Amino acid sequence: MDSLASILHRIPLFSGLPRGSLARVIADLREERYPAGAVICYEGDPATHLYVIQRGSVVVLVNLPGGRREPVARAGAGEWFGERALFSSRARSATVVASEDTELWSLSKEKFDTLLEENPGLIWHFTEVLSDRLYAANQELSRWQAAALGQLERAWSGQTPTIQQFLLEISTLPVLDPAVVAVYCGEEALERVRIVEADGRFTVRTPVGLLLSETAQEFLLSQARRAWGRSAVQLGFRRAAFLYESAGRWGSAIHCFLAAGDEGEAARLWLEWRAVAGALAGTTVSDLAVPEEQRRRLDADSGSKAQKEREQAESQEGKLLRPLVSGSKILRGSVVGAACIGTLLLWVMQPFPGLTPAAMRMLATLLLAGAFWSTNMLPDYVVGLAAMTSWVVLGIVPPGVAVSGFTSDTFFLIVGVLGIGASLQSSGLLFRIALYVLRAFPLSHRGQCFGLAVSGTVMAPAVPDVTSGVTMAGPVVQAVSDSLGYPRRSNASAGLAMAALLGFGQMSPFFLTGAAENLLAWSALPETLRCDVGWADWAIGALVLAVVTFTLGFISTLRFLPCETEPTSSPSLVATQLEALGPVSRAEWINAGVLAAAVLGWITSPYHGVGVGWVSMGLLVVLLASEILDRTGFRVGIYWDLLFYLGAVLSLASVCHHLALDEFVVAKASPMLAPLAAYPAAFLVVVAVTVFATRFILPSLLLVSVFSLTLVPIAAAASMHPLPVLLVVCMSVAVWFLPYQSPYYLALYFGAKERAFRHEQVRPLAWMYAAIFLVAIGCSIPYWYALGWIR
Predict the structure, then answer these.
(1) What is the rounded distance in angstroms from the CA atom of residue 20 to the CA atom of residue 42?
(2) Where are the alpha helices (DSSP H) in 561-639?
(3) 3-class DSSP state for residue 38?
(4) Do 448 and 480 form a contact (C-beta atoms < 8 A)?
(5) CA 77, 81, 86, 91: dihedral to nearest 10 degrees?
C-alpha cells in the first residue's frame, strides 16, 4: 500500500507543496476509524474536513425523495474526498458511509487555515492550483455546453411549430407533473409530453419525475424571452407556482415563485409547509430542486423567529454567567484603580531618602504599567510603549536612555534568533528537529514534556544566553504540540511550553555557562576566588538545587497544566512525516550550518568579544542575502509590533541605573542582610526573598551585578563560601511574577507566536517557582554544610 506522503502527493492540492509544508499537513492529520455501515458525514452537514482513506472503502450517496439514498461513487484505500471543505463553508453535497471497517486521515479546515496563516506564501500555491483546475473545468464545460447547445438548436429547428410552441410553454415548469401540465397547457398537452419525451433530447426521467434537462430549460427560456418578453415569462412562472402549490408540489412552487421574483410568496409557502414536509428535507428539497443558495436565503428569513427565541434563551443563560464575568472585570478594575491611586501618591509625595523626584516618578509609572501588565487590560506592547513614552514626555530620563533597550545586545539577539527560527521553520529543519524529539521519547504527554525538559537541560550549558536558547525552543514547542494534535493555548500545549522553559530557562542558573547572569556573578568574585571556582565547582555546588528544581518543577507543570486529551500522534505518523520531509535539503543544510555557527558564536562570545546579539544578526544577514529566508518569511516570522514591547522592557535596566535605583536598593538591603550572615540558612532564604521583591523594579542582569558585589564581602566576613550566595542570587532572578520581569519567558511566548499559552494560564506555575526555589535552598543547606562551604 502506498504511504500517506505518496497519497498526498497525488492529491492536486498538495502535489506541489514544499516538503516542509507537506510534513506540516501530515502533522495536522488525525486518524479516525469507522466500522462497516457507519456514516462518516451526512449530506447537508457543514463541510469541515478533508478525508484520506488509509484502509477500507467508502460509498458516496446522494439523497432522493422519500428519504432514499442512491450510491453515486465508491472510493478505496489511497483515495480521498471532501477537499472542497478546505476552501468553502458550503454544506456537504453527499453522504459518505463506510462500506467496511475503514481507517481515515482527516484534515480540518481550522488546521488548514492555520497552515496558511503561518505560511502565507502557500496561498499563491493553492491559488495557482485552484486557478488551473477552474480553467480546465471551464474549458471542459465550454466545450460541453457548445456541443449541447448545437444539438439543442438542431433538435429545436426540427420540431413542428406546434411542438415548438409547447416547448416554450413548459420551459417555466421545473417538473412535468401530468396534472399541472394538463391545466397549464390544456388536455392535448399530455400527448405532446409523450412526443417530447420520446424525442429524448429535451427531457430526462428521474425518480422525481419527468424533467426538462438543465441545459434544455435554459435554452428554451432564452427562446421564450425573445418570443414573449421577460415579463410574460415571469407571469408564466407565477401561474405555474400556484398550480404546483395546489398539486402539493411545494418545492416546485417555491422554485417558480423565486423565478418570478416573488420572494414574499416563496417565503410564505416555505413557512406554511415546512413543519408538515419535515423541514423540507429529503422529499421536498430534492424533489423541488430549489437551489442551495435560495434555500439558505429562505431559511434566513423563516428562521428569524427561531433565532430570536434562541437569542432570548442564550440571554437567560448569559445572566447566570454575567456575575462571574463582571466579577473578573471588577477585580481587574480594582487592581488598576489601586495602582492609579498609588501612582498619584508616589508622584506627589516627597522622594524617599536617596531617591530623586525623577526616580519617584519612574516608580510611579512602573507601578501603573505593572498593574496593566498583570491584568491584561491592554496589549503588552501598548503598555510598554506608553511607559517608554511617558519616561521621555514627563522628563524622567533623556530619550537616549528611555530607548536604550532597542540598542541592547539582547534586543538584537531576539531579532536575530527569531529570524533564524523563521528560516529554520520555512526550510523544514525546525519541524525535522521536532520530529526527532517526538521519536526519541514516548508519544505521551508526560513523555514529551520530559523530553523537552531534558533536552533543554542538556543544551543549557552550551548556550550562555538563556533568551537565545528559549527563543529557539518556542517554534519547536509549537511544532511538537501541533504534531501531538493539541489545540492552541490548551493546557496540554501550555504544559509542553512550560516543560521547555523548565529545561532551557529554570535550569540555566545551575551551570556556569548556562546564563549571562551566572558569568556576571562569577566575575564579581575576587580574582583569587575566581580561579578556584570553575565550571565543575559551580555544577557540583548546584547539584541539589538542580535536582530539586527539576523534580518539583516537572511535577508542578503536570499538576497545574493537566493534559485535557491524549496525543493523537503515533510512531507511524511520525515516520510518515519524516518520509514526507525526505532527505535533508540544501536549505536545511545551510540552516543547520547557521544554527551550529550561532551556538558556537554564543559559546565563544567571551573570547572573541562579539556580542551574542551581533552574532545572531550577522548570521541572519547571511540567510537573507542568500535568500534562504525570503522577504515574506522575514516579515511573517518576526513579530515586529511586539518587539517594541521587548524594547521597552529591556530599557528598564538603563533607566533604573540612570536614576540610581540600583544603588538605592543596595543601600536599603545591605543593613538588613548583614546581621543575618551569622545564621547562614536564614541569610540565604532572606537573600532569595529580597531578590524576589527587588525583581519588580530591577532587571536580572543589573540585580545580579549589584547583589553580587554587595553580598560576597558580607558572606566572606561570616566565613561563608561565596558560591552558595551567588547560586541563590542567580537562581532567584529566574523567578518571574509578571511577564515583563523575564525576557526569556517573553521570548518563549513570542517564539511560539502567542499560540502555545496565555499569560494568566501559566501564572500560578510562575509563582510556584518561588516556593520551589525556597524548598531547593532549604534542601541544599545541609549539602553545603557537608561540602564545608557553610560553617
Answers:
(1) 33
(2) 571-581, 586-603, 605-608, 612-625, 631-637
(3) coil
(4) yes
(5) -150
Please, which pLDDT band fits residue 782 given cuts at 50, 70 and 90?
Answer: very high
Torsion of CA 461, 462, 466, 469, to 10 degrees: -130
User: What pLDDT was estimated at residue 319?
Assistant: 45
Q: Tell which wins on pLDDT, 365 or 644.
A: 365
Which is it for the CA torsion 328, 332, 335, 340, positive or negative?
Answer: negative
Answer whether 257's CB lies under 8 Å from 267's CB. no
Q: What is the pLDDT of residues 417-433, one digit of tens each?
A: 778 777 876 676 766 77
Give the H/E segment covering residue 353. Answer: none
C-alpha 226/C-alpha 233 separation (Å) is 10
Tell me which residue has cell 417565503: 267
Angstrom distance (rounded) from CA 623 to CA 678: 56
Other beta carbons less than 10 A from residue 562's beta carbon: 11
Please tell me whether residue 35 adopts helix, strand or coil conformation: coil
For 27-89, where are the E strands, in sequence order? 30-34, 39-41, 49-55, 57-63, 69-76, 80-81
Q: Where are the beta strands (DSSP E) in 208-293?
A: 209-212
The pLDDT value recorded for residue 506 is: 92
Looking at residue 585, its pLDDT comes to: 80
Reading the block at residue 571, the C-alpha cell is 510512531
Look up cell 454567567; give the residue.
Answer: 321
Name the packing angle between helices 250-259 and 292-302 (round to 10°).
100
Q: Is the pLDDT of residue 523 over 70?
A: no
Predicted local confidence at residue 636, as pLDDT: 66
- CA angle, corner 442, sides to 440 and 446, nearest 5? 120
Q: Among residues 88, 3, 92, 116, which one has the least CA distance to residue 39? A: 92
pLDDT digits (tens, 9 = 90+) for 463-494: 556 776 676 677 778 777 877 778 888 899 99
Q: If we measure between CA atoms, which residue out of 469, 471, 555 comes closest to residue 515?
A: 469
Report which of residues 278 and 387 the model is more confident about. Answer: 387
Residues 6+ apart with CB under 8 A from 614: 409, 412
Q: How far is CA 675 from CA 125, 670, 711, 782, in A?
A: 70, 9, 12, 21
C-alpha 405/C-alpha 644 separation (Å) is: 9
pLDDT of residue 367: 84
DSSP 441-506: S-SSHHHHHHHHHHHHHHHGGG-S-HHHHHHHHHHHHHHHHHHTTPPTT-HHHHHHHHHHHIIIII
pLDDT tier at 376, thresholds 50, 70, 90: low
82 Ramachandran zone, left/alpha/beta (phi>0; psi -120 to 50): left
Does the pLDDT value for residue 342 go beyond 70?
A: yes
Query: How is residue 604 written as a grid cell?
Result: 565563544
- Cβ neighbors of 667 (< 8 A, separation 6 or more) are 354
The dihedral through the CA atoms of 315, 321, 325, 331 has a sign that is positive
CA distance 45 to 95: 9
Closest CA to 729 of 769, 786, 689: 689
Written as nine digits, the cell of 585 is 535539503
Cell numbers that stand for 200 in this block: 429524448
Q: How would you classify residue 135: left for phi > 0, otherwise alpha for psi between -120 and 50, otherwise beta?
A: alpha
Rounded to two decimals, what is the model's pTM? 0.54
Q: What's the CA gap between 31 and 485, in Å, rounded?
A: 10
